[in-house]
Amino acid sequence: MHWLVTAPGAVTYPALFLLVMGESGGLPIPGESSIMVASVAASQGSLSIVVVLVLAAAAAIIGDNLGYLGGRLYGRRIWLWGSWQRDRRRRWLDEGDAFLDDHGPLAVVAGRWLPVARFTVAWLAGINEMPWRTFALWNAVGGISWVVTVAMAAYLLGSAAENAIQALGLVGLAALVISLIGHGFWIRRRRAVGGG
Could you tell me what percentage of the chain is helix, strand and coil, using 3-state DSSP and rounding each to the nearest 5? Predict the structure, then answer.
């Protein structure tokens, strides 16, 4: 990712847009890291922070809408395809429906700051058929606020943030492992309470 700091804007801006849009749309790629790196480059004068903010926010919103559309059109069929543990997968969908009915806007906004949720929440909203107008509104709120906070933090920290970015690979991996372990404990607890 360090190449984003030194590459010319003609390369960096499209790369930033594609990385953020891809992560928001459901690909496990470094969209957030690219915002941070581009913001560091802006703090050093090689990019415009205004362009970084606008491109990243637009990419986040567009990517999430593509993920939502994919989830809405194909997600449920893909998730329920095949017979292996189909009943369990159907129960997970029902739980997801109930959760998004109760906490949908909060999940869409808060998911922006969580490593795994960032590239899955749009798909889940589509799969669980959250109304698009609700999703679009809260997705825009979450996407813009996430980009502004991440970008401006990196921009204001400047070169200090550049050193911290080197550790993001390990931090992201650790966050993923912790999230998966936590989800596993939650599932086991639900089974114990519900008797299966």
Answer: 85, 0, 15
